[in-house]
Design brief:
- The complex is a heterodimer of chains A (about 250) and B (about 160).
- With about 250 residues, chain A is of the alpha+beta class.
- Chain A has one domain: Uridine Diphospho-n-acetylenolpyruvylglucosamine Reductase, domain 3 (2-Layer Sandwich).
- Chain A is built from twelve helices and eleven strands.
- A five-stranded antiparallel sheet of chain A has the order 3-4-7-5-6.
- In chain A, helix 10 runs antiparallel to helix 11 and helix 11 packs across helix 12.
- The longest helix of chain A has 18 residues.
- The radius of gyration of chain A is 18 Å and the shape is globular.
- Chain B is α+β, with helices and mostly antiparallel strands and about 160 residues long.
- Chain B folds into two domains: about 70 residues, Ubiquitin-like (UB roll) (Roll), CATH 3.10.20; about 70 residues, DNA polymerase, domain 1.
- Helices cover about 30% and strands about 15% of the residues of chain B.
- Chain B contains five helices and five strands.
- In chain B, a hairpin with a 2-residue loop joins strand 1 and strand 2.
- The longest helix of chain B is centred in the last third of the chain and has 14 residues.
- Chain B is elongated and about 50 Å long.
- The chains are: A alpha+beta (about 250), B alpha+beta (about 160).
- Chains A and B meet through helix 2 and helix 6 of A and strand 4 of B.
Chain lengths: ~250, ~160
């Protein structure tokens, strides 16, 4: 903790983001004078059941999410998101904590975590605070690149969840659209990635599924899809509707 | 950047122990190529997008451009130069026999990534396992065929 708090210190875990940013001299790493490797911190390792939730250490890699028995059973949306993100060698190194702390607009893993009502354990000088992932992401967006050290995320266990994405190819491909769906108790949670500056939970999309209509209109109102060389806004919206329906069908609701 | 500390790193590469003093910010890729003179591992993009620098770290296929030298202290690295490994030899032979390379720049990374796949992998498994390794000339059909050929030769024992 002391080392991380030093000016110029930057948290270093999987390195798949920080090392790329340093190599490419991105503006947000201009402050970095020192990398602090946190991979030996015990509290940030491992994956356990905690009542109705799963505690996933911040150092758990994407690869571990894909293959872990508890994730496949209780957080399938997360296993599927991890499996489709990035490329094999990077999934062996990239961590849950890094995925949460780095603000990627189409973050597959964060979209899945939001669907599972994730909470974040943030380490402080005196005590660990717990806060909803959605609030943490808001704070990160406002204060970037101020660093928070995450010890773990916890997610609601859930037997019915699914992830869908479309990118331009299977590996190394940022999602054009990513969709996470989880049915928790009687609550259907739908999250969307790639359609705003960061992944978000769409209650209106879930409501439109419940009343069997108006999904396209809801998505058009809720999303601000980017337009680039890969796809138009209209294409992304249509894709989102298709992926939402596909994911909902897979969790067995409609 | 301010002054970078130099650290003493002890690492076993292809079964041989090395000790070097390098700046803490040195990547494993630079350690192998510049400091140890092992230029078989290729420096493609330097930012984890091409797979050319794939090596094994304690038996796990990772990208040498995204690992720092201090992280490999006390650990074992395997590169394409490793002569003692029969499975790597068989893969190299199969890539040659299938003409699965043209310029050869991606080949070391392809072979190291392929070396961690199951011997009797399906086409789909091979393609998924090599999804992070980009080839800009041969195309992937012959590469997949080479990996399958090596697996057949490896026999059912492993």
């Amino acid at each position: 903790m002391v080392a991380i708090a030093r000016p110029g210190a930057c948290i270093y875990a999987g390195g798949t983001d920080v090392l790329v940013a340093l190599a490419e001299r991105r503006p947000w790493v201009r402050f970095v004078r020192q990398l602090v490797d946190v991979k030996d911190i015990r509290e940030a390792k491992g994956l356990q059941e905690r009542g109705a939730r799963l505690r996933i250490g911040a150092l758990v890699t994407a690869d571990e999410l894909v293959s872990h028995r508890l994730v496949r059973r209780h957080a399938r949306v997360l296993a599927e998101a991890a499996e489709q993100t990035s490329a094999p060698a990077l999934r062996r190194r990239g961590t849950v904590g890094g995925n949460v702390c780095s603000p990627h607009p189409a973050g597959d893993v964060t979209a899945a975590l939001l669907a599972l009502d994730a909470m974040v354990e943030v380490a402080g000088r005196k005590a660990t605070r717990e806060m909803p992932l959605v609030d943490f992401m808001q704070a990160q967006a406002e204060q970037w690149p101020r660093q928070q050290f995450i010890l773990a995320v916890t997610v609601r266990k859930c037997r019915r969840s699914a992830f869908e994405k479309v990118g331009v190819r299977p590996a190394f491909s940022r999602s054009l659209v990513a969709v996470g769906v989880a049915a928790i108790d009687d609550d259907l949670r739908i999250t969307l990635g790639g359609l705003r500056d960061r992944p978000f939970l769409s209650e209106a999309a879930a409501a439109s599924i419940a009343r069997e209509g108006g999904l396209e209109a809801v998505l058009a109102a809720e999303c601000r899809p980017p337009v680039d060389a890969l796809a138009s806004a209209a294409y992304r919206l249509r894709l989102a509707a298709t992926l939402v329906r596909r994911a909902v069908a897979r969790v067995g609701l409609r | 950047m301010s002054r970078v500390a130099r650290l003493r790193i002890s690492v076993t590469v292809n079964g041989r122990a090395h000790t070097v003093r390098v700046p803490a910010s040195t990547t494993l890729l630079a350690l192998l190529r510049t400091h140890l003179g092992l230029s078989g591992t290729k420096d493609g993009c330097g930012v984890g997008e091409c797979g050319a620098c794939t090596v094994l770290l304690d038996g796990e296929a990772i990208l040498a451009c995204l690992v720092l030298a201090p992280e490999v202290d006390g650990r074992a690295v395997t590169t394409i130069e490793h002569a003692g490994d029969a499975w790597l030899r068989r893969l190299r032979r199969a890539f040659a026999d299938e003409a699965a390379l043209q310029c050869g720049f991606c080949t070391p990374g392809m072979i190291l990534a392929a070396s961690r796949l199951p011997a009797r992998a399906t086409t789909a498994t091979i393609r998924a396992g090599l999804a992070g390794n980009i080839c800009r000339c041969t195309g992937y059909t012959k590469i997949v065929r080479a990996v399958q050929r090596a697996g057949r030769r490896r026999g059912p024992t492993r």
